[in-house]
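User: Show me a protein chain along with its predicted structure.
Assistant: Here is one chain, sequence first, then structure tokens.
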Amino acid sequence: MVVIIDYDAGNLKSVEKAFAYLGEDTCVTRDRRQILEADRVVLPGVGAFGDAMDKLHQYRLTGVIREVADRQIPLLGICLGLQLFFESSEESPGVDGLGLCRGRIVRLPQTEGLKIPHMGWNSLNYDHPGRLFEGIPEHSYVYFVHSYYLQADDPQIVKASAEYAAHIHASIEEKNVFACQFHPEKSGSVGLAILRNFLRVSRGDIV
């Protein structure tokens, strides 16, 4: 069972449909017991960093998500979900993120000829081997929608990157915590392959 955390974050249905296409049972909830009993947990999201953290606090989900990480339950962040896993964002000064991983979120720089938000298909470069990308060729294209991007403190957790006005840390993996700045649920066959790889991760695989 995959639990998708519901905190009024926008793209829940498309994530749910992608897992259903793969034949996986899903549950969209903010119930603590259901989240902690899940085989895998997903934190999706579109919107603003500060507003999202307010919702997570409002629904008393911040501690639950940290407990998921502590219990080694495979945890996937998508788009804003990736950003919330880190410590802070220029989008919302003074607002603390979940702090599951070390790094900060910064705004994409204005660059001549490039539109912000970054909205569209970009290829991925593989920085280090990552379980989400097993069997997927490097330079495959995935779909992005964002104005802010990750600068991770530890380059070893960065598994894939992309170039658009900056060097974007596009996907990370640290123990049981996985995250993608792009939207695998909107990335066609490549995105489905990434989600399928996430479904293959179990607690016994965590190192």
